[in-house]
Write a structure and sequence with these properties.
Blueprint lengths: L2 H4 L19 H21 L17 H14 L5 E7 L5 E6 L4 H10 L7 E9 L4 E8 L6 E8 L5 E3 L8 H12 L2 E3 L30
Parallel strand pairs: 2-5, 6-7
Antiparallel strand pairs: 1-2, 3-4, 4-5
């Protein structure tokens, strides 16, 4: 017996055996897919997805008592209408934050400086923001005496943007208020010299307002 005979090959004329694959009927394929989909749906019903627990409320800020004390001193000293809002600014390092009525702001500013338990004697920063529907002036204050700090926001309209000047309370506010007037057009009533400080005196408009359009399009 030859080696080819041992392998089952009967000679050069033998052809390889082909296994024909029967094609499945399209209707049967559709029925099979439908059955699989029903089986998956039934499995989902047996094992429903676990409900997500609502996020737990954050822990109270350790500075909340301090904020509460600030509010108490101000409302007792100036009136409850002075403080429009009070909250802890967590993204800002848990800084106590107050929104003060513009009509009461000058009284509040004096109390923030002169009240011994507050003694905010350092104006760290003063800035302005165009919020499109209103202007917002932000005062970051620090007490070098007590080591605490606060952010005060005063809101005003865009068309007649006006806030009392606090140059008589913190002298450092002088140039900051001029810069905000120059770039945002907010007038600080009572400022001793409210003139432009960055742009030329003849400049038209206020460049940081969101509706600002250059008078000279080539600039």
């Amino acid at each position: 017996m030859t080696r080819d005979d041992q392998r089952g090959n009967t000679g050069p004329e033998a052809e390889p055996v082909k296994v024909a694959k029967e094609k499945e009927d399209p209707a049967a394929q559709a029925a099979k897919r439908l059955a699989q989909a029903k089986a998956r749906a039934a499995d989902v019903k047996k094992h429903p997805a676990k409900e997500k627990k609502p996020p737990e409320p954050p822990e109270p800020s350790p500075l909340q008592p301090l904020l509460d004390r600030f509010v108490k001193v101000l409302t007792e000293g100036v009136g409850s209408e002075a403080v429009e809002e009070a909250y802890i600014n967590r993204p800002g390092g848990d800084r106590p934050t107050l929104v003060i009525s513009p009509e009461k702001w000058l009284e509040v500013a004096r109390l923030l400086l002169e009240e011994e338990s507050l003694a905010f004697d350092y104006l760290e920063n003063l800035s302005g923001v165009d919020e499109e529907d209103h202007m917002e002036i932000l005062y970051h204050l620090t007490s070098l005496t007590h080591g605490h700090d606060i952010c005060v926001k005063v809101k005003t309209g865009r068309e007649e943007a006006e806030v009392p000047s606090v140059t008589g309370v913190w002298r450092a506010a002088d140039w900051h208020e001029r810069e905000i007037y120059d770039l945002l057009g907010v007038r600080f009533t009572g400022h001793p010299n409210l003139e432009r400080i960055l742009m030329p005196k003849g400049w038209v408009g206020h460049p940081l307002r969101k509706d600002y359009k250059p008078y000279d399009g080539g600039v």
